[in-house]
Every structure is written in structure tokens, then in C-alpha cells.
Design brief:
heterodimer, A: 378 residues, MetI-like fold, 2 domains, B: 328 residues, mainly alpha, 78% helix, globular
Chain lengths: 378, 328
């Protein structure tokens, strides 16, 4: 990285007049693009966001659609080429599953039935749903052409529900809770951190002590305590909001520290003084001069805070004190994996966990890259 | 130094007071109380309690008093007699339940901390000295993955792997025959053969974080002129790094020790539920669900005290290392 930067600097020095002075945001973007892992994180995060937005359409089945014939059905492979009646047919399909009884252990076991072919198509009619709760439709991106044909690309759970569909739909809660939680902590953090940095003195002292105090309490026992205090009979939407609130009550402290630090640092910067001397109003000084120079930091800090929220929600729901079924989040889905025996028969129950790891990893890469790119010292 | 210690210890008093308030507030938040739980359980068994009986139960457990009254009698008992109250559910004094569990939590957290140190420092140093080599990239990627895996999931995967491929169950801290046995060498051996799983699970995230801290700090120091001087004097590379920059690079490391410890204690709560360890986690969860308020409150309070004391120790360690902090 330093080499490329050095080259860029020499170039700039060689053509001082012709090289256009890039704007701050442009510079950040240019530095960011050089960071390969961060670009990967950005792309993955984008894909995750899109997939989650259209998860109802992408998921081949309805999340609650159970089928007692296929409990703990293993993942089926997607095949492409088969020999049909008149030559070779190209097109995706899955083989059927047949149940065998293992007489040694007395358990049911699934075997692939080569003789049965269930063709798979794009834009098929499937379970009806309402896209974003508004548009009624029954089109799915892909699915079996025959209705009721089994297609469990990532296996089935204890009730024969499709793990792939459930994982896709679980992202809606798991990812938005992270986003919403961070938004809430952002409001609290900017408000209290800004006050702390702006007023200083006694107010600063009180807020700093409060932050220190909140950070010294082990968060998970406190979260568990607060989450356990939620009444059992309130609707899922309310649980969702309250859990977010609980996560944000502790999550804001880190952000407040960042905001305060940047505020204090910028207050004494020369360019801020210059802006003041030039007769800028306080509001204009902040909006035009201070905010642009620390917005990227805040965005980086926010991005890095999302994964923690996602992990916290997953952990709480996993323990059974966060969201509860029928709500579907990755943590709720992982409850199925709590029992070592069921995981031993159906390791694909870990799939929602893989989704958690991928999203946390990509957000971390993205946030790390943003932080590096926003750092003017580099 | 003495003045500094006194100041820090005095500082703890309001913090501890606030913690006790928060702990108590959290456990009294849920609507209803333990008597409601009892009434419900009785109803499920087909028994009905009269209003008078319910009233008597409330009086017996002191639940008819005001919030403040309950709080003062609880905290008063702790301060004067070291009495943490009574566990409704277990019918036992809280301290009988809590101390062995808390001791185990401390042992598990502390051994994870040791694990983090022993693993993170050498890898961090290697990563910094051999910056941008395959080893460095490998450490970075593994570190990131370690941060991204929720530790309860990691515990589950480890349990699955050892169950599936090695045919053994790894839950708990003791084999069944040792759970209630008195301490003996055999029991210690059994314990040591089991502790590595929670140690590994809890330590991974912390290790990943610390590798990054050590690497970044050491990279900053390695560029400084005194390192060049040390090399110019003809010191071997190994000695030059160990004697000067490493010591300074470890300074911020001590100050982050406290965060690591808080996270370990916090993370241990969930991991111990998954691995069914005999630590505070499962019992705390149980107590919260049953609204066994004195047990739950004492747990939250003592876990917080554990971390506050951990903070104190790391602050004192830092002051001892760095005179600039002592004389501030």
C-alpha cells in the first residue's frame, strides 16, 4: 500500500498544476478501493443486503411450510444434465429422496432415489406470499416445477421445513436489528458524546463516568437480565423493538467515546479556527467544516458496531430470551442446533450460524477498510 | 503510588453502589414476582392457593415490602453479615450456591486469559516483525474469523466435532464420576482434561483482538530510531526486539487487559450454558427465568464486582509499569 501511495505522491508532485485537487470523499474512496479485503467486505455486504431485501422472493419455500415426510432430510444436490427420452436434457433438477429404516440403530435414514427426477425452474409458481407485506404474489426465483416436490438444497429441520428458506428469511430480523440498534446507539452516542465534547467540564465528567460505569458491567449478564424482564405475551414486533433498545442502551457508549474524542480534537484544529475567524456561524462551521472531516470516522465506527449487535441478538435469541418463534432470526434458528443429538443427525442446522459468520466477517472487513481509508495520517 | 492506589480504591465505592442498584433494579423489573411463579406452578399441579396463603408467602419472603425496603435489607445483609439473601427456588442461602460457581467462573475466565496471552503475544510479535508475509496474512485472516464466530457457535461446533468424530461428549468441567467428588489428584487431572475446551472457545475472540493490538503497537515502535540504534550496536535482532520495542508495545496491552477480562466473564455466561459448565451462567439464566431475585441479583452484582476488581488490578499494573499515569 505504501508503495502505491508513494507513487501517487510522486506523481502529484511532478504535475502539481495539472493534478486536480480531489475532494475529501473522493480521496477516502480512492484509498478504500486499494484495500482488497475491504472491497470484498463491501461487495459481500451489498449482496447480503440485496438478498435480504428480496428474501421472500429468493427463498423457494414458505418458512413455516412443514412436511412430516422429510424431517431432518439431508441437503440434496442440484444436478444439471440428465438423459431424457430423446437424448440429453440440460436443466437443473434434484433427485427424489426415499426413506430407509436402518435396522441396526432403528432410525430412519434418507437415501437418494436416482430413478426420481424433480426438475427445478426459474421464476416458478410456489407458496403465495406478500412481498414486503404489500404485493401479493406466488412467484419465486427458483423452485421445483412440480408442486410438493422435495427440494432441500440445505436440508430440512425437525419439522421438515426448508433450512435454506428459513436462513434467507432470518436475515431480515438479524441484519435489521443490527442496523436499527446501531442507529439508536448512534443517536444516543452523538447526542451524549457531542454534549460531552461541546460543554466539557462537569457535564463531560458525568457522562464520562456514566460511560465508564456502563462499560465495566459485563454486558451479557446485564442483557440477559434485561431481556428476561420482557413480558412473555407481547407481540413479536414489540419484542423486536425492545430487544433493539436493550442492545442500544449499552451499545452507545463506544460511539459516544468516538464522537467526543473527534469533537475535542477538531475544536482546536487550525482550519476550524480559520472558519470561525472567517465569520462562519457555528452551525456552518460544524456542517461545512467539522462534520465532513469526521463523518467517515463515524461511518466506520457505526459499521464496526453492527456486527456486535448481530452477535448479541443471535446470542440472546439462542438462549431463548431474545426473539421467540414464530419470529425467525438466525439466533432463533440456531436454537434448533442447541441439542447435540439433533446436530449430530443434522449438521446442516449450523447453516444459520454460517450466515452469521459471513455477515459479521464482511461487515468487519468493510468497517476496518473504512477506518483505514478515513484515517488522514495514512 | 500509595496515593494513587487510595484514589482508585475510593473511586470504586460509588461504582459498586451504582452496580448494586442496577443489579437490583434489573431483577425487580419483570412483572410479577417469585410467589406468582409458585402460584402458577401450584395451579399446574392442580392445587389452588388461597389469597391468604399467597399473602403469607409474600410476607415470608419479604416481597410485601417496598422496592427500597427490599433493596436496603438485601444490601444491608451483604455489608454487615456477608449474607446475600435466600434463594427461593433452591431453598438455600444464596452464598452457598454462589461461591463455588463464582470460583469456577473465575478459574475458567482466568485460564482463558492466560491462553489469550500465551497465544496472542508471540503471534502478534511474529506478525509485526514479518509484516506482509504469508504468516502475517494467515494470522490476520484467522484473527478476523475468530472475531466473527459467535463463541457459543464455536462451542457447539467443537461439541459436534468431538461427538461425531471422536465419540466423546465434551460438556461440563468434570466427568460424571467426579462432579460431586471431593478434590483429589484424579479430579484435578479430570478437570485439566476438560478445561481446554471452554478455554479455547472463550480465548479465541480475545486472542484475535489482542494479536491486532500487539501487531499495531509493535509496528509503530519498530520504526523508531532507538531500534536502529540497538541494531547498530550489534545486538542480535531477537534481543534488540525483545529488550526495547516489545516492552513499550506491551504497555497499551496491559490497559486493554481489563476489556479482555470483562469480555471473558461476559462471554463465559453463554458458553457455559452451551457446554453446561458448573459456572455462574446456567444458574443465572435459571434464576432469572424463575424470578429467583436474590440469587439472580447477587450473581449480576458479583460478576460486575469481579470485573471492577479486574479493572482495578489492570489499572494498578499499568500505573506500576508507567510512571506517567501514577503522577497524573
Amino acid at each position: 500500500m505504501s508503495l502505491a501511495e508513494g507513487a501517487a505522491q510522486t506523481q502529484a508532485a511532478a504535475h502539481p498544476i495539472t493534478s486536480r485537487h480531489p475532494k475529501g470523499g473522493n480521496l477516502v474512496w480512492r484509498r478504500f478501493r486499494r484495500h482488497r479485503l475491504a472491497m470484498l467486505g463491501l461487495i459481500l455486504t451489498g449482496i447480503l443486503a440485496l438478498v435480504t431485501l428480496f428474501s421472500q422472493f429468493i427463498a423457494p419455500f414458505e418458512p413455516e411450510g412443514y412436511n412430516s415426510n422429510y424431517t431432518y432430510a439431508p441437503p440434496q444436490r442440484l444436478h444439471w444434465i440428465r438423459s431424457g427420452d430423446n437424448g440429453i436434457v440440460f436443466g437443473p433438477y434434484v433427485h427424489g429422496l426415499k426413506v430407509e429404516i436402518d435396522y441396526d440403530s432403528g432410525r430412519r435414514r434418507f437415501a437418494v432415489d436416482d430413478t426420481v427426477v424433480h426438475p427445478v425452474g426459474l421464476f416458478v409458481q410456489g407458496d403465495p406470499y406478500k412481498l414486503w407485506g404489500i404485493i401479493p404474489t406466488s412467484r419465486h426465483l427458483f423452485g421445483p416445477l412440480e408442486k410438493d416436490a422435495p427440494m432441500y438444497l440445505l436440508g430440512a429441520d425437525r419439522l421438515g421445513r426448508d433450512v435454506l428458506s428459513r436462513t434467507l428469511l432470518g436475515g431480515r430480523i438479524s441484519l435489521t436489528i443490527g442496523l436499527l440498534g446501531v442507529m439508536l446507539s448512534f443517536v444516543l452516542g452523538v447526542l451524549l458524546g457531542g454534549m460531552s465534547g461541546y460543554f466539557g467540564g462537569a457535564i463531560d465528567n458525568i457522562i464520562q463516568r456514566l460511560i465508564e460505569f456502563l462499560q465495566s458491567i459485563p454486558s451479557i449478564p446485564l442483557w440477559i437480565g434485561l431481556a428476561a424482564a420482557l413480558p412473555k405475551d407481547i407481540p413479536p414486533a414489540q419484542v423486536y423493538f425492545l430487544i433493539t433498545l436493550i442492545l442500544a442502551t449499552i451499545g452507545w457508549t463506544g460511539l459516544a467515546r468516538v464522537v467526543r474524542g473527534r469533537f475535542l480534537q477538531l475544536k482546536s484544529e487550525d482550519f476550524v479556527k480559520a472558519a470561525k475567524l472567517d465569520g462562519c456561524s457555528p452551525l456552518r462551521t460544524m456542517r461545512k467544516h467539522m462534520v465532513p472531516s469526521f463523518a467517515s470516522h463515524i461511518i466506520a465506527a457505526l459499521t464496526l458496531a453492527i456486527p456486535n449487535m448481530i452477535l448479541a441478538e443471535t446470542a440472546l435469541s439462542f438462549l431463548g430470551i431474545g426473539l421467540r418463534p414464530p419470529a425467525i432470526s438466525w439466533g432463533v434458528l440456531l436454537q434448533e442446533a442447541q441439542n447435540i443429538r439433533s446436530v449430530a443427525t443434522a449438521p446442516w442446522l449450523f447453516v444459520p450460524g454460517v450466515a452469521v459468520v459471513i455477515s459479521v466477517l464482511s461487515l468487519n472487513f468493510l468497517g476496518d477498510g473504512l477506518r483505514d481509508a478515513a484515517d488522514p495520517r495514512r | 503510588m500509595l496515593a494513587y492506589i487510595t484514589r482508585r480504591v475510593l473511586y470504586m465505592v460509588p461504582t459498586l453502589f451504582a452496580i448494586s442498584l442496577v443489579a437490583f433494579a434489573v431483577i425487580t423489573l419483570p412483572p410479577g414476582d417469585f410467589v406468582d411463579t409458585m402460584v402458577m406452578e401450584a395451579r399446574q399441579n392442580g392445587e389452588a392457593l388461597t389469597t391468604q396463603e399467597i399473602q403469607n408467602l409474600r410476607e415470608f419472603y419479604g416481597l410485601d415490602q417496598s422496592w427500597w425496603g427490599q433493596y436496603t435489607s438485601w444490601i444491608g445483609g451483604i455489608l454487615t453479615k456477608g449474607d446475600f439473601g435466600f434463594s427461593f427456588r433452591w431453598d438455600l442461602p444464596v452464598d452457598e450456591l454462589i461461591w463455588p460457581r463464582l470460583g469456577m467462573t473465575f478459574v475458567v475466565s482466568f485460564s482463558s486469559l492466560m491462553f489469550v496471552w500465551i497465544v496472542a503475544i508471540p503471534i502478534g510479535v511474529y506478525s509485526a516483525v514479518k509484516q506482509y508475509t504469508i504468516g502475517d496474512y494467515l494470522a490476520t485472516v484467522i484473527g478476523f474469523i475468530g472475531l466473527a464466530i459467535p463463541n457459543f457457535l464455536f462451542a457447539l461446533v467443537l461439541m459436534y466435532v468431538s461427538f461425531r468424530y471422536f465419540g466423546m461428549s465434551v460438556g461440563g468441567l468434570f466427568s460424571p464420576e467426579f462432579v460431586n467428588a471431593p478434590w483429589s489428584w484424579a479430579r484435578v487431572g479430570d478437570f485439566l482434561s476438560k478445561i481446554w475446551i471452554p478455554m479455547l472457545v472463550l480465548g479465541t475472540a480475545g486472542t484475535a483482538g489482542l494479536i491486532r493490538v500487539v501487531r499495531a503497537n509493535l509496528l509503530d515502535e519498530l520504526k523508531k530510531p532507538y531500534v536502529i540504534t540497538a541494531r547498530a550496536k550489534g545486538l542480535r535482532e531477537r534481543t534488540a526486539i525483545r529488550r526495547y520495542p516489545l516492552r513499550i508495545a506491551l504497555n497499551p496491552f496491559v490497559s486493554s487487559l481489563n476489556d479482555v477480562f470483562v469480555n471473558l466473564v461476559s462471554g463465559a455466561t453463554i458458553v457455559s450454558v452451551v457446554l453446561s459448565l458448573q459456572t455462574t451462567g446456567p444458574l443465572l439464566l435459571d434464576a432469572l427465568r424463575a424470578e429467583d431475585m436474590y440469587l439472580a441479583g447477587s450473581f449480576i452484582m458479583l460478576l460486575s464486582v469481579l470485573t471492577v476488581v479486574g479493572t482495578l488490578v489492570s489499572d494498578l499494573l499499568l500505573a506500576w509499569l508507567d510512571p506517567r499515569i501514577r503522577y497524573q
